Amino acid sequence: MVTINLKFDKSAAQVLHPTGASININKDIWDFYTKQLLPLFTTAGDDGNYANTAQCDLQCLQALSRRIHYGKFVAEVKFRDSPEEYSTAIHAQDGDTLMKLLTFKNVEEMVKRRVEKKAMVFGQEVTLNNVGDNETYKIDPSIVSRLYDEWVMPLTKLVQVEYLLRRLD
Ligand SMILES: O=C(O)C(=O)C[C@]1(C(=O)O)C=C[C@@H](O)C=C1
Predict the structure, then answer these.
(1) Best residue for ligand 1 mutational test, from 73, 111, 160 (most atoms within 8 Å of Cβ)
(2) Which terms does the UniProt entry file under GO BP (predicted)?
(3) CA distance 107 to 74
(4) What is the DSSP letter of 166?
């Protein structure tokens, strides 16, 4: 059982429809993180750094969970922008149409390029004599782009669909 709690302050929570609180996909996040993402940038073996590793895993999982569950707020904004359009699909409980309505491929492409660039800029090894080595990064920037393409954005959209399906309850 994965229990990573998100703490939104009270005023933020009131922006959402109350049933939004019941949406929690931390189990899916745990699964892709441990089974698919970690093997992309770790090597098998035991370096003995258990405490540091656990702390870093926890930070990553919390950051991912927060980012993905923010989809509730994005969905609320989208609903308020076009209530009629979304309501028709919600009344029909049509998740596929909701998914189409809330998807913006051009934005997704921009996000992927931006996170890859960020991983290049902030993931450089900086030494005194050599500020920034363009060849060596702490994490392969293309994996960061893939992380968003294959898991972060799809799961953010899943949260949005789940939220919208219950938005008129
Ligand atoms: O920007 C939006 O409209 C979002 O819903 C966020 C997001 C994302 O996760 O970054 C998700 C779906 C869209 O297709 C584009 C981007």
Answers:
(1) 111
(2) amino acid biosynthetic process; aromatic amino acid family biosynthetic process; chorismate metabolic process
(3) 13
(4) T
With pLDDT > 90 as the criterion, what percentage of the chain qualifies?
81
The topology (CATH level 3) of 10-41+49-165 is Chorismate Mutase, subunit A (1.10.590)
Is the beta carbon of 111 within 6 A of some atom in ligand 1?
yes
- The C-alpha angle 53, 54, 55, rounded to 5 degrees, equals 90
Is the distance from CB of 52 to CB of 13 less than 8 angstroms? Answer: no
For 125-152, how does the pLDDT look when each residue is reduced to its tens digit (9 = 90+)? 887 876 655 568 989 999 999 999 999 9
Q: Which of 69, 102, 158 maximizes ligand 1 atoms within 8 Å of its Cβ, making it the mutation to test the pocket?
A: 102
Please say whether the beta carbons of 99 and 161 come within 8 A: yes
Q: What distance in angstroms lies between residue 71's CA and the mean position of ligand 1's atoms?
A: 8
Confidence of residue 2 (pLDDT cuts 50, 70, 90): very low
Using a 6 Å cutoff on CB, does residue 26 contact ligand 1?
no
Decide if the complex's ipTM is over 0.90: yes
